[in-house]
Specification:
It comes from Dissulfurirhabdus thermomarina. The protein has helices at about 45-50, 60-65, 70-75, 80-85, 95-100, 125-135, 155-175, 195-205, 220-230, 250-260, 270-275, 305-310, 315-320, 325-350, 355-365; strands spanning about 5-10, 15-20, 25-30, 30-35, 55-60, 90, 105, 110-115, 120-125, 140-145, 180-185, 210-215, 240-245, 265, 275-280, 285. By secondary structure, the protein is of the alpha/beta class. The chain has 2 domains: about 5-265, Queuine tRNA-ribosyltransferase-like (TIM Barrel, Alpha-Beta Barrel); about 275-360, no CATH class. Strand 12 (about 210-215), helix 9 (about 220-230) and strand 13 (about 240-245) form a beta-alpha-beta unit.
Length: about 375
């Protein structure tokens, strides 16, 4: 089975549409993956996600390894059966989670040694174990274990992390036992264009099913993030999908698609929904603001999601201020609909070779007012 096929390309930029092929189905790209870190997208059911148009979800190796455990999930039929989702699943390797818990972890040549944030127990996550866990889960797309660094970082730290990531990637390939599950290498290199290019070239030479751009959205300026995408992307094989990890805002998605990125994930739509921040065609709104307490209109007049078709801003504000559980569900439905619809519209624009017109319209709408 082919991993990826390009179906359309913009004549004005690097944006492209395609299809990612997996054991559990085909994913049209560019695509956004709702984040289901612990085998659930918070407040939503798999039926909700299908209804919103989600085609692929993201889970996390680190969290599922710690709780409930990959062997338990294997015994229960794998991650798809465990969480009741029949579409593709991509799992992050856990490298970013170890990085984010730096006070509890240390990085060695063999792997990452860390204490569980759940119970304080000591663990060593090696490249081999990362692959073993993901194969037990049955992940359609598995990620190599990588080592992340903060921004800013000195050249010595960048060189160390990039070299280690390449060596770990080679070990992940050697540990692989289920070739039907896709394995992606993760490009590092910090914010150094020389090391970004080198990392991408080294991973491309190893021959993965796809490639991810890691270490982005870690506090760097947006212009620098996009520069790193532009630096690394041309070094990766054109016949393989490219995934920008943890990216990001609607603007990030549009700009990275314009630069040839195919897959995205980010906690923003779900986390911001729980914090009362809603994405719209004209920008973001904070639903708890007093200006909405008697507003009878929908969150976004241009939106066709269940939330906007049935409920007013005034009602959503009431739910949020009252801390009703329904607030989190309705807000999440709206935000994920916005992100998934944005991706659908980009795919359609690329197929019509009208991506730059779409891009201009996207920014013009955001200059409007709620």
């Amino acid at each position: 089975m082919r991993v990826f096929e390009e179906t359309a390309r913009s004549s004005e930029c690097a944006a492209r549409a395609g299809r990612l092929h997996t054991v559990h189905g085909e994913v049209p790209t560019p695509a956004f993956m709702p984040v289901g870190t612990q085998a659930t997208v918070k407040s939503l059911t798999p039926e909700d996600l299908h209804g919103l148009g989600a085609r692929i979800l993201l889970g996390n190796t680190y969290h599922l390894y710690l709780r409930p455990g990959h062997e338990r999930i294997r015994r229960l039929g794998g991650l798809h059966r465990f969480m009741g989702w029949d579409g593709p699943i991509l799992t992050d390797s856990g490298g970013f989670q170890v990085y984010s818990l730096a006070a509890l972890a240390r990085i060695e040549e063999e792997g990452a040694v860390f204490r569980s944030h759940v119970d304080g127990s000591l663990h060593r996550l090696t490249p081999e174990l990362a692959v073993e866990v993901q194969e037990a889960l049955g992940s359609d797309v598995m990620m190599c274990l990588d080592t992340c660094i903060p921004y800013p970082a000195g050249e010595a730290e960048v060189a160390r992390a990039s070299g280690l990531t390449t060596r770990w990637a080679a070990r992940c390939l050697a540990a692989r036992r289920r070739p039907e599950l896709r394995l992606f290498g993760i490009v590092q290199g910090g914010m150094d264009p020389v090391w970004r290019r080198r990392s991408a070239e080294e991973l491309a030479a190893l021959g993965f099913d796809g490639y991810a751009l890691g270490g982005l959205s870690v506090g760097e300026p947006k212009a620098l993030m996009l520069e790193m995408v532009e630096t690394a992307r041309p070094c990766l094989p054109a016949d393989r999908p490219v995934y920008a990890m943890g990216v990001g805002t609607p603007e990030d998605l549009v700009e990275c698609v314009a630069r040839g990125v195919d897959l995205f994930d980010c906690v923003l739509p779900t986390r911001n929904a729980r914090n009362g921040q809603l994405f719209t065609s004209f920008g973001r709104i904070v639903i708890k603001n007093a200006r909405y307490k008697e507003d009878p209109g929908p969150v976004d007049p241009a939106c066709t999601c269940y939330t906007c078709r049935h409920f007013s801003r005034a009602y959503l504000r009431h739910l949020f201020v009252a801390r009703e559980l329904l607030a989190y569900r309705l807000n999440t439905i709206h935000n994920l609909h916005y992100f998934l619809e944005l991706m659908r519209r980009m795919r359609e624009a690329i197929e019509r070779d009208a991506f730059e017109a779409f891009r201009r319209d996207f920014y013009q709408r955001r200059e409007g007012t709620p």
